[in-house]
Design goal:
- The strands form 12 sheets. The chain has a 9-stranded mixed beta sheet, covered by helices on one side. Strands 13, 14, 17, 20, 25, 26 and 27 form a 7-stranded parallel beta sheet that branches. Strands 29, 32, 33, 35, 36 and 37 form a 6-stranded mixed beta sheet that branches.
- Helix 2 links the parallel strand 4 and strand 5.
- The longest helix is centred in the middle third of the chain and has 17 residues.
- By secondary structure, the chain is of the alpha/beta class.
- The protein has 11 helices and 43 strands.
Length: about 650
């Protein structure tokens, strides 16, 4: 849905014309020209799936032969009877390149009754009129999709030559439960495609937008093989989350051999004490070891971490609900009045590149302190300014989200995607989120949504030849909801896949320190995951150990100088991490001591090549004195000596070097 809001602060640059560049034209002359401009951006984002460069401009600015310099042209007719440039109409009539026309003003291309026969002879269909008769459903590939009731008008066409024209998608009008009329929704004749409305208004998970998203492959002439993949994401996971719920969800998904994403908010904040008896609360991931351990456990079960904002809330105000992490927007100002009418929906007062970068850096620092790496970004509640999205694109090579898009005059539209967008208008690579989430109870303005709703949306997304089924789940809900979604989506033929296949290493289990005796064998081992191949390099007191490049470091016949701090670096093509330190303490064996009258006998096993130093003293306060230095032979050493009868005590110790 489109609505005027505010001046956007940034937009990505428009590429220059080129033979592979798509030209998008829109009606820009009236006060509602922003509708066409903003819809052009949404179309351009979909073109980022292929990906194709694109440029948009008002159709009023069209110059003769502009079309010739582009791969194909889209015209978004959003203004009824807007006078189109004759140069544009003439170029469309003459071109053999693909033209995709949406909604209004096709009658100008078709011409009067004298021109109609030529139009029909070339394209095999005719335009009739804009029909407001209530065509609320679109059929495509055996599925039925909705048209929002506020999207009243639909361009009505009739196919006059089946050999020249076809209608891959149709619209129907119903009376009660009965279909009483069917007309083309999308019609194709020769090089001309006509879509009866602009499919970017009022889009939803089960909207006719999905049919257009699939047909776009045929319109641009770039096919993709049939391939249906799925992602499940565990949402709003923060440092105060009950870790047993996280582990239970991970265990279930692991049992189904499913990789999954975990949207992590690195800092929990409740500045107003909304859930804490009025007392402010703040918990950082870096200082929540049980939480970090749970994240490592989830990674070990197939999870991949997504950075879901820094605090997922804004300052110490309601924005708009509670001020608490997970409830509120972080990068956008949103408020409602007492009647839940939208009051504010705009960038935050302090919004700037520096401010957004600062929050991202602070969040990433939390991950770094925990020695964890997010594979992607997700904007809290998907809401941010255009400038913020540009910062996200610069920082993260991958996002999973829906997003807001703006025009230069300050209007906004939201968009989701049924497939991967390699580059949107901000430069973001976006993995789809197109199913929504399970929420059995209404929360604020959001209606209930049950597993069958997500499964139904996933079924309809199968019409998109490379469409995904991507939704999310809050682990505090009954786990059976997650089971229903996962198993229902799998039953539709989707395959769950990892969010990313370019994952930096994460250490799941650090090498453990130990205390051992001289001559024993010690093994240090690290458990790590990440995109293969993983490379290992062990270090002793920070210095590289030559040849120690395996997952396990084994030290045989340990010597005293093996006592040190050991770490291991794990590296792949996408990053590196270093383990926590494991300290090795090397001890000499205990001595056996016997006393016969005034003769003391000390015995201890030795290791060949180790020098042993036997020392003694007669009081705690005195210094140690060397009794004997001997080289180990591999046998038991025996040392005897006399003890003076006037000594109250004698202390012995054994050192090795």
């Amino acid at each position: 849905m489109l609505a005027p809001l505010w001046m956007a602060s940034a937009q990505a640059a428009t590429p220059p014309p080129g033979t592979n560049t798509v030209l998008i034209l829109y009606d820009g002359s009236s006060e509602f020209g922003w509708v066409g401009e903003l819809n052009s951006t949404l179309l351009g984002n979909l073109l980022g799936h292929f990906p194709l460069p694109w440029r948009k401009m008002p159709v009023e600015n069209y110059q003769a032969r502009d079309l010739a310099g582009h791969r194909l042209v889209f015209y978004l007719g959003t203004e009824f009877d807007n006078a189109l440039p004759e140069a544009f109409l003439e170029d469309v009539r003459a071109t053999t390149k693909t033209v995709c026309w949406m909604k209004y003003n096709l009658w100008q291309l078709q011409g009067d009754t004298n021109s109609l026969p030529a139009f029909e002879a070339k394209y095999g269909f005719r335009f009739q009129f804009m029909d407001a008769g209530g065509f609320t459903n679109v059929a495509y590939k055996g599925e039925t999709f909705s048209r929002h009731p506020d999207e009243i008008e639909l361009g009505r066409t009739t196919i006059v030559n089946d050999a020249l024209a076809s209608a891959p998608a149709t619209a129907s009008r119903r009376e009660g439960s009965n279909v009483v009329e069917v007309i083309p929704y999308v019609v194709r004749g020769s090089n001309l495609w006509y879509v009866g409305d602009v499919p970017f208004t009022y889009i939803s998970e089960e909207d006719r937008y999905l049919a257009f998203a699939d047909l776009l492959h045929d319109i641009v002439g770039i096919d993709h093989p049939e391939n249906h993949r799925a992602i499940i994401r565990l949402e709003d996971v923060d440092p105060v989350y009950p870790t047993e719920l996280l582990r239970a969800a991970a265990d279930y998904l692991h049992s189904q051999h499913i990789s999954f994403a975990v949207a992590v908010v690195p800092v929990y904040a409740d500045p107003l004490g909304y859930y804490n008896d009025g007392q402010p609360e703040r918990v950082e991931m870096a200082h929540a070891p049980r939480f970090v351990e749970a994240l490592r456990y989830m990674i070990g079960r197939g999870g991949q971490l997504v950075m879901h904002g820094y605090t997922h809330q804004y300052d110490d105000v309601l924005n708009p609900f509670t001020g608490v992490t997970g409830d509120d927007y972080e990068f956008f100002r949103v408020t409602y009045d007492a009647q839940t009418n939208l009051v504010d929906f705009m960038p935050l007062p302090e919004d700037s590149r520096q401010w957004a970068q600062g929050r991202i850096r602070a969040g990433l620092h939390q991950f770094e302190q925990a020695r964890l790496t997010p594979v992607a970004w997700e904007t809290p509640h998907y809401g941010a300014s255009a400038l913020d999205y540009l910062v996200f694109a610069e920082t993260f090579p991958l996002t999973i989200q829906r997003a807001l898009y703006f025009d230069a005059a300050g209007h906004v539209a939201g968009q989701f995607f049924p497939y991967v967008i390699e580059r949107d208008v901000y430069g973001q690579k976006i993995m789809p989120e197109n199913l929504g989430n399970v929420d059995p109870e209404q929360w604020s303005l959001y209606p209930p949504r049950l597993p069958q709703d997500l499964i139904r949306a996933a079924r309809k997304n199968r019409v998109v030849r490379d469409g995904w089924a991507s939704g999310f789940f809050h682990p505090y809900l009954d786990l059976t909801y997650l089971m229903e979604v996962v198993e229902g989506v799998k039953a539709l033929g989707y395959t769950y896949v990892p969010l990313s296949d370019t994952v930096a290493p994460t250490i799941l289990a650090d090498p453990a320190g130990t205390n051992t005796l001289i001559g024993e064998t010690v093994a240090f081992r690290v458990e790590a995951v990440g995109t293969e191949p993983l490379r290992y390099q062990w270090l002793r007191n920070g210095w590289v150990i030559a040849g120690a490049t395996n997952q396990t470091l084994t030290l045989t016949e340990v010597r005293p100088d093996d006592a040190a701090v050991y770490t291991v670096g794990v590296t792949n093509a996408f990053g590196s991490t270093t383990s926590a330190a494991a300290q090795l303490i090397v001890s000499v064996p205990a001595m056996e001591i016997s006393l016969d009258n005034s003769v003391v006998t000390l015995s201890f096993p030795t290791v060949t090549g180790v020098v042993y130093i036997l020392e003694s003293k007669n009081s705690l306060a005195s210094d140690w004195a060397t009794l004997r230095t001997l080289a180990g032979t591999g046998d038991t050493a025996v040392v005897t000596g006399s003890v003076a009868t006037n000594n109250a005590m004698r202390l012995y110790r054994l050192r090795a070097q």
